[in-house]
Design a protein that fits this description.
Length: 109
């Protein structure tokens, strides 16, 4: 049976956690701003025309999609605490069970 290969210390200590968190945070911020601007524009267009504000199914579908997207990105941020962004050999074995619950939750999102 083969033993686990040894990695250089630089590989064992390197992490991409900051990049993962930054990308998720930017994704959350940009998508939130876009949806808020869309709802604001709909509201302004209807109030300028002096008609009641009615949001259609596509507006509500966009809002639901935003919530699922935020949930998925939050799971990615949470998963960095359990080894996402590290080399697989640098992740302690005790942290290997927790990501499966994230896989399960992410699959439903």
């Amino acid at each position: 049976m083969e033993s686990t290969p040894e990695l250089p210390a630089t590989h064992m200590q390197s992490t991409r956690r900051p990049e993962i968190v930054a990308v998720a945070a930017v994704g959350i911020a940009i998508s939130s701003i876009a949806v808020i601007l869309r709802f604001y524009a709909r509201y302004q267009a209807h109030s300028a025309a002096r008609i009641s504000v009615r949001f259609w199914w596509d507006d509500w579908a966009l809002l639901v999609t935003l919530l699922f997207s935020h949930g998925f990105l939050a799971l990615n941020i949470a998963w960095t605490n359990y080894g996402l962004g590290k080399h697989i050999l640098a992740v302690p074995f005790s942290h290997c069970n927790q990501p499966f619950s994230f896989f399960y939750a992410g699959g439903h999102l």
